[in-house]
Amino acid sequence: MSQTVRTRPEGIDRALSEAYDTALLDLDGVVYAGGHAIAYAVDSLGTARAGGMRLAYVTNNALRTPDTVAAHLTELGIPTEESDVITSAQAVARLISEQVPQGARVLVIGGEGLRVALRERGLEPVESAEDEPVAVVQGYGGPDLAWGRFAEACYAIARGVPWFASNTDLTIPSARGIAPGNGAAVEVVRIATGAEPQVAGKPLPPMHRETILRTGAERPLVVGDRLDTDIEGAFNGEVDSLLVLTGVTDGAQLLAAPPEHRPTYVDADLRGMLTGQPEVVEAGEGFRCGGWTATAGGERLELEGEGEAMDGLRALCAAAWTAAGDGACELDGGKALARLGL
User: Fold this and answer.
1) Active-site hit among 13, 28, 144, 269
2) pTM, 2 dp
């Protein structure tokens, strides 16, 4: 893919909720964490919806069904229909259905979300390699997924059955911190078999295709907390993105981001959907946003001024990304980020 290398976050003088017709929102780390709504999420999403923006919830977590997710969001105070939820289970089920006969048996290593998605595509979920499956699909099965399930996958794959994975996120946020995600479980099967799965979830094209097919979005904005799934998925789909700092990505990771991980916009939380975004402008040898000016020195990033922390972070992004070009910035930004409390 040939794209212009982004060297700074963009500015816009309209609220993002007015400039884009559909928000494609990640869930874990963006809307909720550990089942509880993240600060400002409920009110921000309600205001965006009332203003005419469609809200779609796009998750790599294949465990829960769309109706379960919708019910949970509604309980949190975010009215949601089943059709508003798009999961990696749906994306991988479509991918499988395009390669196997209608009604074919598929060995499921994961939760109910995968089984429902497979049935939606006219496929039959089965539980054992002895059930003669024509494909294996692996998705997040929760913390209590039995070790023997991985063995079933290995038995089938060893017989030449094609292997699919809903996603390969190595981690997943939980109420107690960061826990192993489906990608960690996929590695178990990969190591045991030497096989490589076909993957559907973010940041890969099958997930973006599933999202656009189900939402009909014409000018979507991807909203996420992960650089390697949400933001890279937007990059691959050639659509704009908003990174919020309520999940796994911190300031240091953002400054070091290679081109495919650089978001269009950066903000602290979902309130950023309701506002414009300040412009980052060149200022001598550096970049200014609000009251802050950032420059790239010989070994570290420098930050001068005062004002809103997010403005300082945007200026630092411009200095870091410009210095890095089409690579990853290796300059030390720790002292500058500490000034911002990030």
Assistant:
1) 28
2) 0.93
